[in-house]
Design goal:
The complex is a heterodimer of chains A (226) and B (463). Helices cover 40% and strands 21% of the residues of chain A. With 226 residues, chain A is α/β, with parallel strands linked by helices. The chains are: A alpha/beta (226), B alpha+beta (463).
Chain lengths: 226, 463
Amino acid sequence: MRILVVEDSPRLQRTLGTALRRSGYAVDLAGDGVEGLWLAESHDYDVIVLDVMLPQRDGLSVLAELRRLRKNTHVLLLTARDTVADRVQGLRAGADDYVVKPFALDELLARVEALCRRAYGTKQPRLTVADLEVDPQARRVQRAGRAIELTAREYLLLEYLARRRGHVVSRTEIEEHIYDGQVDPMSNVVDSAVCGLRKKLGPAPLIHTRRGLGYVLEEAPAPAPP
Amino acid sequence: MRSIRRRLTRELLGVSLVLVAGSWGAFFLAARAELIEQFDATLRARALTLTTLTVREGGHLRLEAADRLGREFSMARPRDFFEIWASDGLAALRSDSLGGADLVPPRGSGSRRVVWNLELSNGRPGRALAVNFQPRPEKDQGGSATGAEVRLAVASTREGLDEALAELEGIAAIGGILLLLAIFWGVPRILRRGLRPLDSMAERVSLIGADSLAARLPVDELPAELRPIADRLNDLLVRLENSFERERRFSADLAHELRTPIAELRSLAECALKWPESREASTDRDVLASARHMETLVTRLLALARGEQEQLQVQPVEFALGDAVVDAWAPFAERAGERRLKVAFDLPAVEVSADPFLLRSILHNLFDNAVDYTPPGGEIRVALDAGGGARLRISNTVAALDADDIPRFFDRFWRKEAARSGQQHFGLGLPLARTFARAMGWSLSADLAPLPRFLVFTLENSR
């Protein structure tokens, strides 16, 4: 899951970045409205955490511009303005959630997670594919009742594939959602991560390669009748 | 409670009642007098006829054309009567209609002509006229023209007159009542209609509350008398709306300014508790920076609040303003050099009486802004003018600044960047400087000089 944080206070920006990365998200940071809008337009984020009072271009106008461009990214407004009128204005401008500063970090993380869930059209906190079970809250993976240890990156990849189970996911999409801006697009990080994940998941293959298209996580298709 | 409508109603009703009663009464009396006058005119005409027809024949009086008169004054139609008394007071002639009775002569019958009311012989009310005249002598006998005067009294029953008078009274009474009803019905309605703009204005004004300050009174629809009031009220509303808007912005800004560092502190602490291994040396520096930021903010807000409540201790001292300016500039010289700013001073010797601490705070704020907001390579000019007091002008070149920004310069938390990007400036320096200047009895104003674009702050001691 890839998150964009647009926040003008550098200290808050740093802390939010750390907390979200520690929670397993790929995070990009922007310090003003113009940079935030540019990043939001050019990448496919799962959630944008957007401050309202921003230099150069305020959060509400960034949000309005995004919606005008038909970007449906989930946006969580983060602001010090707490009156009902401000909340209503924010939500009407197209925000999906509204958090008032100062906030509890856990609550913000839970709301970001809920928005990620909504991004893939499910309200179920656990993701299951055949005998594989992914619990995003506890960041635990089980297969046939047996716990599987994954690295943070492998877990992210699996969660992303699980959220989009049954759909072919391209390498670019995986790069966009799992890795933040620092990955060399020409590298084969995705392929090697998928390879490592397959090994850890065990013999019955769940991640299938669609040649030239990408990967899909689904139950092995039933063997063709003789 | 005094009410214009009630007072006007009372007074208008009073005045119209007096006027209507007066004119209606006068009309009634005139009509009545006219009726009686007509009746009397008939009596006079009859008397004239009788005096011309009465002739003296020897020692007797006789009426000519007695047939016609006999019909007119006959017994069969006892409505009109006459009687002529000779100079000795004895009845000489009387109409048949009197049926032999006498007409009651008027009291005080000495005067020539008199009109009076009387009871006729048949018991009916009547009105009579009496005149003295000299009967004409019989032509044939050629008697002397002069002779003893006789007295003639002509009377008629006044039933017809009384009926007409009663009818007139009836009409007057009914008409009067209708007029009164019309007045009582009409006056309040006319007033209500006339005062309707006042009512609707009162209603509009009563609907104006703290959340509907954008409402304005429709001046064009109002009558001329109410326009000045509505104009002033609209002006007041504009000012009220602006100041409400300023206060609202201030509280929103204050919330932002206070909540952001709290959010920083809280998330730093929560992050460090959640992932103790993520704690770096920079975390503590961030905590300290947030705390100091809040400290500065709170100190400035308190100073501002005290200044606005006039609780500042001002201790004026005489000193040379030029020296104070040079001292205050010293800490900024290095930063100005780094930003390649050209600085020019023109400081003639001027002694002022001011609180040195407050003056230094003001200069500090102005220099701080000038050094930070002048574009690199720009120019700062500091000029002192001694004419009539002391006027210090601190001007600097500016890049992006509109004339519209100038009035908002002294709003709390205002910065050109609605964004609070620079963590160094709170947007409290200028309001604070102005508050300090006012506390000392000085004034601080900002102006944008056109080409070359210079932002000019003028600190002035008008005394």
